[in-house]
Amino acid sequence: MPNHVLVMKFGGTSVGSAKAISSAAGLIAGQAGHRQVAVVVSAMSEVTDLLLATLEAGSRRDSEAVERGLARLREMHFAACEELLPPDRHASVRERMNGILDAFDRVARGMLLLMERPLRAVDRAAPTGERLSALLLCEALQAARIESARVSGDELIVTDSVFGGANPLFDETAANAESILRPLLDGGRVAVITGYNGATRDGTPTTLGRGGSDYSAAIIASALRADELWIWTDVDGILSCDPSIATDARRLEEVTYNEAAELSYNGAKVLHPRTLAPLAEMDIPVRIRNSFNPAGAGTRISNRPVKSLGVRAITSLSTVSLISIGAASLSLSGAQLMARALAAAARAKVELLLLTRSSFRQNFCMLVHSAEVDAVLEGLREELALELAHGYLHPIGVDHSVGLLAAVGEGMRGTPGLAGRLFTAISRRKVNIIAIAQGSSELTIAIVVNEKDLRTAVSAIHRECGLGRPAEALA
Ligand code: ADP
Ligand code: ASP
Ligand code: MG
After folding, report:
1. Could you tell me the distance, in angstroms and rounded to a whole number, from the CA of residue 45 to the centre of ligand 3?
2. Residues 6 or more apart in contact with residue 204 via CB below 8 angstroms
3. 241: which of 94, 117, 144, 249 fits an S-S bond (Cβ 3.0–4.6 Å)?
4. What number does the ligand 2 atom closest to the CA of 49 have?
5. Taking Cα atoms as reference points, which of 120, 128, 216 lies closest to residue 168?
6. Of the bound ligands, which one is closest to the alpha carbon of residue 16?
7. What is residue 469's predicted lDDT score, i.e. its pLDDT?
8. Residues with CB under 6 A from ligand 2
9. Alpha-carbon gap, residue 399 to 283, rounded angstroms
10. CA–centroid distance, residue 48 to ligand 2 (Å)
11. Rounded to whole angstroms, how far apart are CA atoms 397 and 146?
């Protein structure tokens, strides 16, 4: 067996039913004869939502909802098992699934008793869906006579202890990949790894954040120094726009790591935002492919320069909040104020999506994910307490009713008049622009508008830039 390694990641819909799991097994079988294959799986679609809602019900002492959640989880996975596997496998697979679900049940019951939902307990229980889908996929591979071994992400990926969004420790993870995965692959087996989870150095389970199995796959590909990563999902690749906003969104044949990273950080759900960094560093190409249309070429992501002009894709985020800070006295130094505000945001470990500043009035605003706004505000109010108390600063403003859109493309560099065209296209639809930012790399133009206008603005730019498929291609 040549020791070229392919990592394949299957998302929620790509393992979302017995039929999907069986075609995933077929896609793996198609590669396993040619090279070493490590597979990363998500939970079946909607399962992680259901698991988290069940834990939440536990912490509210809603025992009926906990029972309902468990029954639904059991029913979904048992039904998939029955449809997928020959009858002589049902009893033993059901028993192992019960074992996985019992462990989840114990955590949910702990929450019922304590009426609390500690993050570290959530992280122990949340990857239950991945454990179940990995089990089903291994069974499907066995039925297809492909030898596989199930590996839990928490044996492999070593992380810090930021529960709910842990950060990998790459050297330790690479050492685990060598000692655990490499012998499996060298022995001709397919490794089936649960995505989304890891563990701290002392073995406490963690998760990498929602949608994190893309990131798991990237971490594992980098740890194995893989030749390629294929991410199987339910669309034909990276599209020029979220297909739920623009039905004529077009597949991009090829994008650079930078373009894909900008798109995912600015809301393109098809990739977890942190996925590309470890891959770009090692120059491991990625292909985003549709498991429901496996003959399609997908989108290739690599360092290869792409010859293209102007904007390539538009993306948007609606769960964001705009924080404004304004000096009430011109005697305050705007630069110092901004430096302190940024330091406070950094201490709160939040991601700044956009920053803009007016130099005359010493006002500036920052855009953050809504889930992080309380943490930033607390940090800012602490850092600027004196200025706020003495009226040197206006009260900090927060606007939750905004949305962010971003136009992305390497070819935007040096395309004169592009920003103006985008603003005109938006204004023509009577949408008010609240803030604008363009990074010095000129790869992205980010625009803040009212959330209610976000879809209108996104489709206006998509159309203005001619990104949709031609009318005759729209069946
Ligand atoms: P998976 O479960 O396979 O990880 P996700 O639901 O996380 O899949 O991501 C795929 C979804 O991302 C698509 O079904 C699509 O609706 C959405 N999406 C949003 N923006 C884009 C885009 N620019 N290109 C492709 N898909 C996008
Ligand atoms: N199952 C996890 C989630 O739904 C991880 C993933 O699908 O990537 O967030
Ligand atoms: Mg995903």
Report:
1. 10
2. 120, 161
3. 249
4. 4
5. 216
6. 1
7. 82
8. 12, 42-43, 48, 129, 195-196, 210-213
9. 40
10. 6
11. 58
Residue 130 CA: which ligand 2 atom is closest? 1
Burial zone of 404 (CB within 10 Å; 0-12 exposed, 13-18 middle, 19+ buried): buried
Strand 254-256 relative to strand 228-233, pairing: unpaired
Q: Compute the radius of gyration of the chain from its Cα atoms.
A: 24
Q: Ligand 1 within 6 A of 42 CB?
A: yes
CATH architecture of structural domain 5-234? 3-Layer(aba) Sandwich (3.40)
pLDDT in tens, 351-405: 999 998 876 667 889 999 999 999 999 999 999 999 999 999 999 999 999 999 9
Residue ranges of the domains in the chain?
5-234, 313-474
Query: What's the pTM value of the predicted model, to 2 decimals?
Result: 0.94
101, 104, 106, 112 alpha-carbon torsion, rounded to 10°? -120
Cβ of 234 below 6 Å from ligand 1 = yes
Q: Which ligand is nearest to the CA of 40?
A: 2
For 334, what's the count of Cα atoms within 13 Å in the CB-facing half-sphere?
A: 12
In whole angstroms, what separates CA 370 from the centre of its chain?
16
Using the 8-state DSSP alphabet, how is residue 393 labeled? B
H or E element in which residue 116 lies: none
User: How deeply is 269 buried, as exposed, middle or buried, from its count of CB atoms within 10 A (0-12, 13-18, 19+)?
Assistant: middle
Q: What is the CATH number of domain 313-474?
A: 3.30.2130.10
The span from the CA of 13 to the CA of 42, in Å, is 9
